[in-house]
Structure formats: C-alpha cells, structure tokens
Predict the structure.
Amino acid sequence: MKRWIVLAAGLLLAFQALAADTVRFGSKVITLGDSEEKVVQIAGEPVRKVEVQNVYGALRGYRLDYVQGRKTVQIYVAHGEVVHIKELF
C-alpha cells in the first residue's frame, strides 16, 4: 500500500513540474524552446516587452508580459526562443 502512495505522489509531482514548462493561451500551448514568432502568433502582442540584461549590462534577451484575467504570464526569450515561463498570480 505504501508503494502505491509513493508512486502516486511521484507522478503528481512529475506532472506539476511539466506544467511549469508550458502555458496555455486559449486552446494553444506555448512550451520551452518555441520561437518568439510562435509566441506572438499564439498569444498576440505582449502588454510589455522588457530587455533582460546581465550584471555587466549586456543584453541577454527579452521578457514578454501577458495579462490573463488576474494572472500575469512572463515569457523569457533568448536567442529567439523561449527559455523560461513564469506565472504570477
């Protein structure tokens, strides 16, 4: 019985980690590795586009901000592809 509980908990945690690498816009999904062009095609133009710099001031990429109801979705893009997705509630 304990094995089943551990297995169920492990599967549940695995799916939560997977969900952190994706974000849904309507019926479409954006995942890590998608191009910036695909993000704009699926989600539309962002509310804000902020430059992300390293400690020396060099450009590392961009942060695209989208508002979905009471949630803000931040999509980080470097070298033309999605590298990080963050949801703020």
Observations:
- The CA atoms of residues 3 and 78 lie 42 Å apart.
- Helices lie at 2-19, 36-43.
